[in-house]
Amino acid sequence: MIELKNLTRKYGKKIAVNKLNMTMDKHRITMLIGPSGCGKTTTLKMINRLIESTEGDIIINGESIYNLDAVQLRRSIGYVIQEIGLFPHMNVFDNIAAVPRLLQWNEKKIKSRVEDLLDLVTLNTSYMYKYPLQLSGGESQRVGLARALAADPEILLMDEPFGAIDPINRAKLHESFMSIQEKIKKTIVFVTHDINEAIKLGDKIAILKNGDLIQHDNVNNILYEPENEFVEKLLGHDRNIKALVLKKNKDYIQRDGFLVVKRGEKPEKVLDLITAAGKKSALAVDSEGRFEGEFFTRISKHTKELRLEFNDEIVSLEKNGNLQETLSLMIETGESIMPVTSNKNNFEGIINLNDIFSELGSGEK
Amino acid sequence: MFFEYLINNQAEILRMIIQHLFLFSVSTMIAIISGIFISIISTLEGYEKFGRVLLTVSGMAQAVPSIAVVALVFLVVGIGMKPAIIALIIYSIVPIIFNTSSGLLSVNAKTIEAARGVGFTNNQILWKIKMPIASPVIIAGIRSAATINIGTATIASLIGGGGLGDLIFIGIKLQKHHITIIGAVLTALIAIIVDISLQAAGKKIIPRGLAIVTK
Ligand SMILES: Nc1ncnc2c1ncn2[C@@H]1O[C@H](COP(=O)(O)OP(=O)(O)OP(=O)(O)O)[C@@H](O)[C@H]1O
Ligand SMILES: [Mg+2]
Hints:
- The complex is a heterodimer of chains A (about 375) and B (about 220).
- With about 375 residues, chain A is of the alpha/beta class.
- Chain A has helices at about 40-45, 70-75, 90-100, 105-120, 135-150, 165-185, 195-200, 220-225, 230-235, 240-245, 265-275, 325-335, 355-360, and strands at about 1-10, 15-25, 30-35, 55-60, 65, 75-80, 155-160, 185-190, 205-210, 210-220, 260, 280-285, 290-300, 305-310, 315-320, 335-340, 345-350.
- Chain B is built from 10 helices and no strands.
- The longest helix of chain B is centred in the middle third of the chain and has 34 residues, at about 120-155.
- Adenosine-5'-triphosphate (ATP) binds near residues 16 and 42 of chain A.
């Protein structure tokens, strides 16, 4: 738990952060958001004393950070910044090992820790000996996260860590970030200027404006009980669409109303099943229940007979994905019904576009 | 003619070579150590402004001809080995300061912030982050200082520094070109050998990650 008490930072006459009072919950992600220059970075950097406060106090686990040595404090707090935060002259291994070495761990322990962390951020161990210049933006951010976690700090500070990553890779990083947090349960303070990112990743959101805290609440309350016009503007008009990012696919899966057959089934039998059910298609799984594709019927042009065909290029949805992604995928692929699979491609059911629409219409929940 | 002269004056020429190497190595060592020291001090956090001034001054100073430095030192300190070494230090410290301070100042501020943020002390930031990252530029500075130094050392003979410069100027005075050429060629050889060794040493010192060419 991090408590900010009357936290203030002035630069001459300019007040960058003004009497901030807030508590960042243990094991939760607090998102700091607001327009450029509102004091997000200043607030974050006061927590690891890269910037000293002008007034006020910061209490971590009951103790003021100003009673601790600044260097020791920083070694106990993970810190991730946008891009180029990696040390260019050190390979991935040495980057991740940096803090453990400052803490004088033995090399054996460091090596196994680095391996575990690479695994956690889903990078192959062959990355160990690559240099930052040889990594993509997304890979660099994974290494940056691993480095921040190296000494297993309780607190993680992140300043727009995914800001410079393209949208597709950012979505991937979001997914891994959330599943990592599920495992490690750190107290995270995360600065962003992207409201969608804040809604997607945050447990709570703190909104700043000109150094003042405007609203600090859990994501649902921010979405449906915005404090004032400023927050409403930040959220935009399509709040229900924004809220879709909070809704998980797994809660909207339908398990009946469609046909499932084995991929190896005889075509005549499949055809019979489809016509008997009065449908035009059937989803196919293998003997272990993994999703394979879709059988569909078509009337042949020449013989006018009903024929069975198979499509193995059906896009499926991730069970842990969110409805916002699902909606855009449906629009992109032109499908109103899509199959859902769990992590090992196990078939779970389907999601229907109509269910998403009724979710949008239902408003506040 | 060349060989005859070389063989007849073996001992004398060897003495000059050793003297030359002495002038060169003493002055270069002192220039490297004090140049790097001055650059580190003047680029410490909070003193970057001073570092930038030093950078500009040393950039301009590189344009001063060596003979002018030698002459000035002669006017102030006089004649002999010591003034020669002083002149060489002054002249070769300039590229070292220029490169070291520009190398240190150009380390990305975000990299330094990241290091401080994860708990590096100021000393660790200097030795484990800034110096290794600046090392290619620093070593380039040392190489050019060394090469310049070997050449300038010949001029130092004008104020009694000795070394291969003596051979060159004797040749000129006596109008015996082969003597001048022997002096010049030996100087050039030393310069080439020193530069190649420094280049090899640089390859060992510069961290591999910095030498990688981006895809
Ligand atoms: N070293 C400094 N000297 C003077 N003013 C500063 C300094 N650092 C920050 N400020 C001012 O303090 C305010 C808050 O800055 P801060 O970096 O915290 O903003 P931010 O919310 O992180 O913005 P951004 O989204 O652009 O990163 C800004 O108005 C900025 O100009
Ligand atoms: Mg910022």
